[in-house]
Amino acid sequence: MISARDICKSFGGQQVLRKVSLDLLRGEVVAVIGPSGSGKSTFLRCLNHLETIDSGHLEIEGEVLAATDAAGVCSYVPEAQIRRIGRKMGMVFQSFNLFPHLTVLENVIEAPMVVKGLARAQIVPRAEALLAKVGLLEKRDSYPARLSGGQKQRVAIARALAMEPDILLFDEPTSALDPELTGEVLRTMRELAQEHMTMLVVTHEMGFAREVANRVAFMDRGELIESGPAAQFFAQPKHPRTQAFLHNML
Ligand SMILES: Nc1ncnc2c1ncn2[C@@H]1O[C@H](COP(=O)(O)OP(=O)(O)O)[C@@H](O)[C@H]1O
Ligand SMILES: [Mg+2]
């Protein structure tokens, strides 16, 4: 579903991604872990075209998004194609990013109406079904300010799903939550995994990575150090930097 090869990205003079390569297969859940500042968010943002890459090769569902030629020149496909490919992916952010002036239901139907041009009558039943799925149908007419962090994040997940993405990208979806609220969000994500949603999840939740992810990838200082099946990754990390990180985390 995603093929990222040798992705490089710098901000100013600072190289933030150093030849990062990662594949995401259909129905797979991959957790990306690593210390703060290692480039995890930047990598996700490059996949979703919230950032442009400097070099490397990016394919989403077999369609090239960006490629680098032998001379090292990186080019993107035309804008309309970028937008179309981008719609295959939904993103859930640490800070929820809900529209504060819209109700829960309006938050969920906004993008399908504006971006996909769907009629309100067409999308509302689907939005209500998604709110029921994340356990928040009774909050459909509430404003985000009246919700807990865990509820906001579940609305954000419903909102992402309303666009019917093939892939969901999560950037530390529980990091802004009080510990007692992370469980409800992780439970929703676990259910999506059981339904074989393809997900790439940047997370500090080692329990979630171990139990839900098929594969775990470790990033440090802009490099993807190692990745492997979750059980093997946690039981026998190969690289000393992975071992040190896990030693501190677990
Ligand atoms: N828009 C930006 N401009 C300049 N530097 C940035 C920008 N975004 C991220 N960085 C830098 O890139 C590095 C990696 O950041 P980030 O991808 O957010 O790491 P992580 O998500 O692993 O904590 C950090 O040093 C950060 O300061
Ligand atoms: Mg980050």
Write up this protein.
Helix content is 38%, strand content 27%. A hairpin with a 2-residue loop joins strand 4 (55-60) and strand 5 (63-68). It has helices spanning 40-47, 79-86, 104-114, 120-133, 149-162, 179-194, 206-212, 230-235, 240-249; strands spanning 2-11, 14-24, 29-33, 55-60, 63-68, 74-76, 89-92, 167-171, 198-202, 215-220, 223-229. The strands form two sheets. The chain has a six-stranded mixed beta sheet, sandwiched between helices. By secondary structure, the chain is α/β, with parallel strands linked by helices. It has nine helices and eleven strands. Bound molecules: adenosine-5'-diphosphate and magnesium ion. Residues 40-41, 171-172 line the site of magnesium ion.
